[in-house]
Records
---
Amino acid sequence: MKLFSKDRPEIPIVNHLKNDGSEWTVKEKLWLGLSIPEYKKQFLRNPINWFMILIFAIGVPLLMQRYLFGLGTVTHSSNDYPWGLFLGFGLFAMVPLSASGFMLGTTVELFGRKDFKPIERLALLNGLLGYFFAVLFLEVDLGMPWRLPYPMFVSLGPAAVLFLVAWHVATYLTVQVAEVLPAFFEWIGWLKGKRVIKKWAIGLTVSGIILSTLHQGALGALFTYAPGKVHPLWLSTNFQWILFFCSSIFAGLSMVIVASTLIRNFMAWRCDDTFKDSLDTITVGLAKGSSIAMITYLVIKIVAIAHDQEWEYLLTGWGSYYFLELGVAVVLPLFMFAIGVRNHYVTLIRFAAFIAAIGIVWNRLNTSLVCYNWQLYQEIPHWKEVWITVTIYALYFLTYRFIVYRLPIVYGWKGEK
Amino acid sequence: MKNLFSRRNFLKGGLASTAAVAVLKNKESDASGDFTGYPDGMGVLVDLTRCVGCRSCEAACNKEQSLPEPDKPFNDFSVFDELHHGQKRRPDEKSYTVVNRYDVPEIDHPLFRKIQCNHCQEPACLTSCFVNAYTKTPEGAVIYNVDVCVGCRTCMIACPFYIPAFKYSSAFDPSIMKCIFCYDTRLKEGKPPACVEACPQEALSFAKRTDCIEVGRQRIRQNPGKYVDHIYGEHEVGGTAWMYLSGVSFDKMGFDIHLPKEPILNFVKDFLAIVPMVLTIWPGLFVGFHLLATRKEENKKHTIEQNTDEKEEQV
Amino acid sequence: MQTGKKFLKTALAITLGVTIISPNTLLAMAAEDAPETITIDSMANLYTSVEFNHEMHTEYASCQECHHHTTGAIVAAPNCARCHHNHDENDIVSCSGCHVANRFSEKYLVTLEKPELFHIDKPGLLGAYHLNCISCHEVTSGPTGCQECHTMTEAGEKRFDTGPFSPKAGKNVSEKH
């Protein structure tokens, strides 16, 4: 992109109007203002894209195999481990990593912290995409994916936790679409729509936080159906929902730091000065928020162990693994955040956020797979299952990049808003 | 609670979920842990001291439920030596019930245990299902409706006995595979399930659940030393319709003896209880926060204006 | 149970004759009055009928071990002896006389509801045979395998997916990991 923007000042597009005064068409906006050969050229010279092609070349046939010949052909189809990577990673890890939307929505819209405004849209988009792809992962995993609307409209089981998850994720997805729409409306130039949504901003944000609290917690509560199966150190039936909710806070914030870092480094052409200049300060602010959530999380973890009288488990092998997880995934990034915030070491914070985000994935995989059926045996996912998971995640990455390339997420739309 | 909601409908977004929770609240009280089962529900008492591992029940079940052809004949006893991931056989998409052998050192002959759905009084599968695919019938069976199932497999997570299996082999017609107490073909008409009828040793006795407990107690009392003084399933996870008597301690027969005495749903209630609270308190709380946070800003604006006014006055 | 009925008639005649002249202790039926063999075929379906050599079995077990209190002999089991300590011979001594074939039918289960009934746990015919035979065979090294007493019929082979109905090797063995 740098290549083209050097000698063509109107690229990247930040305005409805070209330099000569004529308007960009939507089609031109889609091609980033480049001619098709130019677009092809920039696409092919990016090594990431070749990597993506490799993933899809194998992943798409595997997905077809899954839909034509059943889950049994691509997963280890276990009756003891009904949930594998698709849900363990795709649902249980993607959703907390997408808590960013409601976190920054609340900060900016409700608490009036306008200093976080430059990153609000990225956080909202990160949330929206994370949820959308969590649903996509679900669609890969469900036995009858064509019946996705059944729990909403056909046969309702409202006393089940999953019912809550389904309804809340669906409503929240709608809320998030509404929250991201202004960026889209700016981009296509339909300002009336934007104004309508702006009026709902507070309502949307408040319903966002309600729905998030409940379904982030509900994902944890799903495991309270299996009190005898998940290792007691990873399951506290009384506190599971708080633990999941609380960890989703720093997961979401860390994910925004990770995403903004990647965008700042690899998509600098797309960022405007407001974003670039304020990012360091914002990152420190986010790290501060993360640290508080992490401390709270650690305290609840200890309270949970004390409450359930599980001290003796800490001395077993599982206990060591538990300490390893907490140490690497929470305590280490917590210290790095703390040092980073105090001394304004933004790079350290970014590194810590990366660890914390991976750490949450690790925690969710531990809860749903590694420490599940701890008294039976450990299931290792089929390589095809891993590949399909990576493929869906790659699709998530591409969609993310596609939108950030175009919509005013990390830059402000110039001209009429 | 409903009135409170309708009076405070200041949040459009919250309303959709409010409706959901209003339903949730009603349903929750129906399915609370106080439900002790249908009074005339049937049950089966499995006397493990009688089972000789002939697998007649497996064969009968296979034919009654029109299950797929087995991998090995039902009179092939090498299946008792099979281990999958170090585990003995379990019900899967080809079998609703299996018999496993246990060699207990203090007993000079092998012991056998039949497993199938225990048909809980308050089934975890049922309470975890978000499309109501499961029903506990007044006759005592926990049955499954494939027509509404979406295949999320939460029931398999929730079942404390590792019973429901999934037809992973099918892409277009998958379903949960699980013993249904021969509900459609037999139980509904007052007949015992096929396995009970097939058992030559009468290791399976079919009767009202309450009578099963009575018979179990009588056997324990009248045969001192023969049985462990416990009817497995009388209280486990809130009680099950299928219950077991054993001559050796239940953990030696592969039973999970650490199962709670209360229904699995009770462990989920902590979370279910907070749902209405979050729904009612959060909107007020956060709108309040919002007003507080922005008032400060407005105040600031106000003060600045005042200050400038004052300055102007001074000038 | 053809032979069983004949046996019954004889038993009845003997009982009537003996009761008038003998004191209680002598009421017990004599083993030699019993039939030599009994064909157990009332439930033959999956398995062929069993030719039960009654005479031979009297050498291994006393009457009451199978007939409980019905033959007038003293019952050994302390739990039974509480009521049946001094029991007369019964008119009916055959297994099916007391142990019903449809043990778990709705109709039979209702009869168990009577509050005065003590025998709420009486095995059905199928259970009575197998519980009694196998437990004794285990001690006396008698046959305990299914087909050692009765061979499988075609219906049985079908039910058990065995013999000509065996699963084809490899055909159904799903890929296990």
---
Amino acid sequence: MTSPASTNTTAPESESVSAAAAAAFATPPATSGGHRGAPVGSKSHTDGAWQEIPVQTRSERFTSANVGDFDEPSGHEIEWKLTPIKLVADLISGDLDGTVVEPTAEAVDGYSLSWVSRTDERVSSAGLPEEKASANAWSAFDKALAIDVTGETPTEFIVKRSGLGSDTARAAHTVITAEPNSRGLVILENSGDARITENVEIVVREGAHLTVVSVQEWNDSAVHLASHFAQVGRDASLRHIVVSLGGSVVRVNPSIHLSGQGSNTEAYGLYFADSGQHLEQRVYIDHEAENSRSRVKYKGALQGEGAHSVWVGDVLIRQSANGTDSYEENRNLVLSEGTRADSIPNLEIETGNILGAGHASSTGRFDDEQLFYLQSRGISEEEARRLVVRGFLAEIIQQIGSEAVEERLSRAVEAELMIAAAGAAPAAASDAIADDTDATVTA
Amino acid sequence: MSTLEIKDLHVSVDTEQGAKQILRGVNLVIKQGETHAIMGPNGSGKSTLAYAIAGHPKYHVTSGSILLDGEEMTTLSVDARARAGLFLAMQYPVEIPGVTVTNFLRTAKTAIDGSAPPIRTWIKDVKSSMTALRMDSTFAERNVNEGFSGGEKKRNEILQLELLKPKFAVLDETDSGLDVDALKIVSEGVNRAKSNTDLGVLLITHYNRILRYITPDFVHVFVAGQVAESGGPELAVQLENEGYDEYVKASAAAAAAIASAEAADAASGVAAVAAGSPAVNA
């Protein structure tokens, strides 16, 4: 499944499925997905190694809020095979502390913050776990942090979490709800120590425009597993941004369901994996409703021995999603030897009546010709590298929409580069791995 | 008065088959304010000379010197050479995604001068140079060379030449691929730089079309990695009428000698790599 990447820089390898071409594959109705239904599975139904025929269609993956419904992962399952599960075993199936940890947030008009019980109607409104670590958190949390967005003028709301401790394995649950026609920007900032598995539910009601940014600037030893579930309503729009810079193992998996007609999502991600860091993101875009639109763009830089990034982008265009317009891409920039970037786009199309669906993935090393060009203008090698990497990642940072946060993250990315300049030797041949594209059309 | 002196320069280039000798003893002396045209057939080593002067990591100086006012350039890094006053206008400028022309120019100017340029005069300088090169003001906010046409890339090179004010500029086939209007605009830019900063120019070209707009003081015919003949501007006219055939034939005997020398070089080139030549580019 993996193949050595070209050592040249980012020659984009892209592919798009035109509506006409996809029409040729139009299929009879498929069984509907169970992502919001009651758990119907038993242990034997779990996706992965225990089945003779693995579940191929993303919508048919088993879901349950109960940790007991999932088998202990062996590490061969599709959702775990690229994750160092030994390092997160306690979060997957161990006992978790689900007590509340108060975040820091300055009050802003148009946003409210409260702790709600497990039976609150906002809980389970956006999705259910597809894997055991997510279900473990769901089973263990005490109260959910509810963030309600009600304002109609764009402002920003920053919720900070820090000092969760490195001794206790924790569970957390957050529900973010954007009321109809509201406008909001919610930034979740994570720093300090942590061992945490959590779920974040995001509901964007009709006509609302919401941006949710999750920033991981954890300490070096932190471990963080997160599943985000989003429902985007009629004519609503969700911009979802994952920024992962710090932490030992950080895995943030957003599943965005475009469940309302004319719904829209833009899912962006930025990661910078240093030596020994594992940064993973599995993005799932589920086109359920007609005329829905999605754009996915994740960009990452890798440097140092053992730096590992994983990007999996699943896009499902259901039979019901006529007029879908979808595009996803992942770009990796390799800055030193000894890194590994897994990049796996998957596209499932169940209807031919779409505007477009495409994907692209590339993993390339730092371009010597760019370096030469900049240096030939007097710019030092370190400065030249900084310019190029900053330029590469700026595209994502600029999507956040908060000047102060953008500025701070730009500096954080530069700080990562300084670590590189001090530590790693200049890039030579790398072990970059680019998983090739798996485009499947379900029959 | 600065002088750029190239003495008995031998240069090899990395290829998939190993190191290949391209320059075989180049001698040139360029004084500030002078324009030297280097003309020659394809494959004669003209661009190799340009890259070797700038310090591209793929090109290795096996012997000889590049001296700027007596200071050895061949041991300096690419950026140090630029800061010393050398400039290369590239034949194929690369794209730098995510880096705007404005940001790039300011960063380069700061690096060359050792301090940031005073903001007001800098903006004025950039604007007036862009206007003179008929570059739309939207260029400033575009990413360096990204989506630029061939002519736009060349104008962007000359913009940098005007703003960075080097002592010596190597123009590597800056005229190639330009229509006559763009050729005039680019040539005017070079002439402005010459009169404003007493720039010394090493103008590498395949055709003498550009010499109608940039008058050379000296013309050198480059064949098989060496200067085969030097003369005044009249030599360019003669080349236009007669082509390079005569020189290529005249050096046929030399070429044979070179071919056998190449075989020997290839063997010693391998040895040099095995010995751990530090400049080998992975």
